[in-house]
Amino acid sequence: MTRVWRQRIIGALVTMFWAGAGASVLACPVCFRVEEGPVTDGVRAAVIVLVGVTVGVLSGFGVFIVRFVRRAAVEDLP
């Protein structure tokens, strides 16, 4: 089995699991079936900010690594 097929099978299994999972799997126990209010809105905003910061930092590392790889490839040319 090639690497591409293995990735496709894993992707299909993850997609089927995610699609078949109920709403309780998609929410943490704290947020699931919680009454609406200002505290709930604050927690949701905090989660969005934390996810945004995490994505930003990981994207920065990705760009940093890609730049080093490209620079190394250019310097290796004769």
Give the strand tally.
0
The proportion of residues in beta strands is under 5%
Global morphology: flat
Give the N-terminus to C-terminus distance in angstroms: 37 Å
State the domain count. Answer: 2
Catalogue the unreliable spans: none
Largest sheet: none
The gyration radius over C-alpha positions equals 20 Å
Which structural class fits the helix and strand makeup? mainly alpha
- The helix/strand series, from N terminus to C terminus, equals HHH
Helical stretch tally: 3
Structural features:
78 residues; mainly alpha; 2 domains; 3 helices; 77% helix
Provide a descriptive summary of the structure in words.
The chain is mainly alpha-helical and 78 residues long. The chain folds into 2 domains: 1-30, no CATH class; 34-78. 77% of the residues lie in helices and 0% in strands. The chain contains 3 helices and no strands. It has helices at residues 3-20, 23-26, 38-75. The radius of gyration is 20 Å and the shape is flat. The relative contact order is 0.05.
